[in-house]
Design goal:
Structural class: mainly beta
CATH architecture: Beta Barrel
CATH topology: Porin
Strand content: 35-45%
Radius of gyration: 15 Å
CATH superfamily: LURP1-related
Length: about 200
């Protein structure tokens, strides 16, 4: 891929494949998700905004700087989420993208992603497709080229806490923060189905 695919920030587009571990932390933890690289270095955290009616989550970089805020749309049949730049309340023109769960089948993963400029949503800009029971998923760009793959990591720790632990491979020049945001949204949609 010659041109970087930057949705949240080009700062998170790297020249080589990036292998991430995404762990949903136990409920008692202050962080919803912890994201590390293959060397164990902290890359991102996702924290829940307390007392949020819209289930807001904030994606923080390794220095705890907010880089994106997710907000689920209440009473949405398609489990829609909106993602905004930084620690936004979503009131300004800082929308980055929206997602729509295009499959209403519990185990099937099919998430359509529409960039902020794609207001009519006649066709998706990115798509995540997979099987939630197997915890596997592939993210495609508009040209149907794979840009990231997710699979379940089987570890005693994740089983003991009942939380998800994923391995994600992000292709070169693809925004890692964007891919992390999609995996978190998929995890939240799945959690909502189980509640």
């Amino acid at each position: 891929m010659d041109n970087p695919t930057a949705v949240i920030s080009p700062l998170f587009c790297f020249s080589d494949h990036v292998h991430l571990s995404i762990v949903r932390k136990p409920i008692i933890s202050a962080s919803g998700f912890l994201v590390t690289d293959e060397k164990g270095n902290n890359m991102f955290n996702v924290k829940e905004k307390m007392f949020s009616f819209h289930g807001r989550r904030v994606l923080l970089d390794s220095k705890s700087i907010p880089i994106a805020t997710f907000r689920k749309k209440i009473l949405s049949v398609h489990k829609r989420w909106q993602v905004f730049q930084g620690d936004s309340s979503g009131c300004g023109g800082d929308l980055l993208f929206t997602t729509k769960n295009s499959s209403l089948v519990d185990f099937k993963v099919e998430l359509d992603v529409f960039l902020a400029g794609n207001k009519e949503e006649r066709s998706w800009d990115f798509k995540a497709v997979g099987n939630w029971l197997e915890k596997s998923c592939v993210v495609y760009n508009k040209d149907s080229t794979p840009i990231a793959q997710m699979q379940k990591k089987h570890k005693l720790v994740s089983t003991a806490f009942g939380r998800d632990n994923f391995h994600v491979t992000v292709h070169p020049q693809v925004d890692c923060a964007f891919i992390v945001a999609l995996v978190v949204i998929l995890g939240e949609i799945h959690e909502d189905k189980e509640d």
